[in-house]
Amino acid sequence: xxxxxxxxxxxxxxxxxxxxxxxxxxxxxxxxxxxxxxxxxxxxxxxxxxxxxxxxxxxxxxxxxxxxxxxxxxxxxxxxxxxxxxxxxxxxxxxxxxxxxxxxxxxxxxxxxxxxxxxxxxxxxxxxxxxxxxxxx
Length: 137
Description:
By secondary structure, this protein is mainly α. The chain has one domain (5-135). It has six helices and no strands. It has helices at residues 5-20, 27-39, 44-53, 70-86, 92-104, 109-121. The longest helix has 17 residues, at 70-86.
């Protein structure tokens, strides 16, 4: 599937927003962001600079993101949940933002709750090979 440039940008932006919601950026979060940024075609220097300044950057708007395609939105929410759980600390602020983004994209609350529970109950919610993005690109 060809992902439009705006959706690629929003996908990465959304992951960055999710990662900084708890005011910390773990190595596992950085690893996911790097992997997805690379797959989406972003330059290494761009996403590395962004990661370095992420927590201090006051210019990233944190409104829920609207994607052009439901499949992209589903992939994003799943990867966002994996990102949120990758540092082994679930925070409501990350989950609530992802839930709002799911709602903005007309994803059903039941679907979101199912994906959330799958991540909560997974012994290893993070594996690069299991990123949802890989199933649509």
